[in-house]
Write a structure and sequence with these properties.
Blueprint lengths: L13 E5 L4 H6 L10 H7 L20 E5 L13 H18 L3 E5 L1 H8 L7 E2 L9 E5 L10 H19 L1
Protein name: Mismatch-specific DNA-glycosylase
InterPro entries: MUG/TDG (IPR015637), Uracil-DNA_glycosylase-like (IPR005122), Uracil-DNA_glycosylase-like_sf (IPR036895)
GO molecular function: pyrimidine-specific mismatch base pair DNA N-glycosylase activity; uracil DNA N-glycosylase activity
Length: 171
């Protein structure tokens, strides 16, 4: 199964970066399409979107200044199916994408995603003090997977920091 298309553009407010597409996302060709994934509910509940979007509308979020990509393009059943070589290649590709498109914020959807990109195993939630790509703010958010054991309110509160940052920056 081939990867799903990125939604990238210049001037993005936030580029959401996942591990890799689920099999459901690969089949539908839309980001965060697994019905057990809470991504779209988190965006709405945190104030990042004005309404609840569906995965089939992922391309519409470009109008809000939000883009999507993954550190690994190949859809898999789980992250345990991603090879070391895919992470190495994905890290280089992601670095190139961030360097070219320079979104205001690179939001890593999961500590593991940021750890793979930065090669830093110790990561806290929220904005990083120093960025790998100069001029791009890096934000580490919880995974939106239904397998995450954090309470939804805690997850939404972390994403709300992004909403507050972008609202403050827009004013």
């Amino acid at each position: 199964m081939e990867g799903i298309p990125d939604h990238l553009d210049y001037g993005l407010t936030i580029l959401f970066i996942g591990f890799n597409p689920s099999l459901r996302s690969g089949a539908t060709r839309h980001h965060y399409a697994n019905p057990r994934n809470n991504f779209w509910r988190i965006l709405y509940s945190s104030g990042l979107t004005p309404r609840l979007y569906d995965a089939s509308e992922d391309g519409e979020l470009l109008k809000l200044g939000y883009g999507f990509t993954n550190i690994v393009a190949r859809p898999t059943r789980g992250i345990e199916d991603i090879t070391r070589e895919e992470y190495t290649e994905g890290r280089e590709i992601l670095h190139a994408k961030l360097s070219e498109y320079r979104p205001q914020v690179a939001c890593f959807v999961g500590k593991g995603v940021y750890s793979q990109f930065s090669r830093n195993p110790r990561v806290d939630w929220g904005f990083r003090q120093e960025s790998i790509i100069e001029g791009v703010h890096e934000f580490v958010a919880p995974s939106s997977s239904g397998l995450v054991r954090m309470k939804m309110d805690e997850i939404v509160d972390i994403y709300r920091q992004l909403s507050q940052f972008t609202a403050k920056d827009i004013c």
